[in-house]
Amino acid sequence: MLKKIYEEYKQDVFTYLISLTHDTSLSEDLVSETFLGAIKSIHKFKGQSSIKTWLFSIARHKWYEYLKKEKDTVSIDDLAYNYLVSDENIEDLIVNKELCHKVSQILENESEKIKSVVLMRIKGYSYLEISQKHDISESSARVIDYRTKKKIKNTLIRGKEFYG
Length: 164
Prior knowledge:
It is built from nine helices and no strands. By secondary structure, the protein is mainly alpha-helical.
């Protein structure tokens, strides 16, 4: 079964990772790590999403793990860009990297808690880790992240319409 999943989705995962990394060699390594992660956590897959979405989520987390290791060389703008375009529901939205530096400006108007939650998500922390740090439920962390991400996207869209 796992071999079938690998054969069916390896190219999709690779293409997705290329869109994040812009590096063929790194993407190939991350594909391997993604499927190793999938093998280790297949027992956790509950079928609430498609296998492809689940694999993309694992791939994204592997990319974030890589970025954390290389954090001295990765800008917050790059992390913010990946954070903003990571949801499938905005595939048709073009967010260009020039606007992503505005994320930190937008966050400046938010509370320390909201800034911290979003920055932790941008850096790839799980909702569980965020909830533990802020002494809130995972559900609350998700809601804060969702609402703030939506606000950021709407602000960026308004800015794009206004300026360009």
